[in-house]
């Protein structure tokens, strides 16, 4: 074999064929529950994946998750290094997926699919029958990813209300939504 040439092997990830290099097969990938020691790495991951927007404070989002269903926040580790995350919720009717992120260099190797499958498995244990998620329409790459792993676009309108801004408006202020 020539030097520098990567040999690919066919593997199956969640029932889907995928080709990976032998070097990747030697890496240890684990999904673990979030721990405080991962905070900075997770936030950096979210920033790298453009998941942090002005109206979201990642530190606050993590703190709130740790107070409500902390057992549904998972981190993907590749050789012990944070390279993925998924935040999951369930209120008894629908499951929700938020903050799915995989480092750009590790995307398209099945890691995101594995995190989503972990979320689905945990939700099923709780009796959940449907999982929802929201994606900005402009994020075509992520929409395609979810469709590829079996999600379908629902014929619904997604509405939202920023409660802090709405409260100011209800009190006569000029808060926006």
Brief overview, please?
The chain is of the alpha+beta class and about 180 residues long. Helices cover about 30% and strands about 25% of the residues.
Walkthrough of the structure:
This protein is an alpha+beta fold. It has one domain: 3-Layer(aba) Sandwich (Aminopeptidase), CATH 3.40.630. Helices cover 32% and strands 25% of the residues. The protein has 6 helices and 7 strands; from the N terminus they run ββαβααβββαβαα. Strands 3-4-5-6-7 form a 5-stranded mixed sheet. Strands 1-2 form a two-stranded antiparallel sheet. Strand 5 and strand 6 (95-102) form a beta hairpin. The radius of gyration is 18 Å and the shape is globular. The termini are far apart.
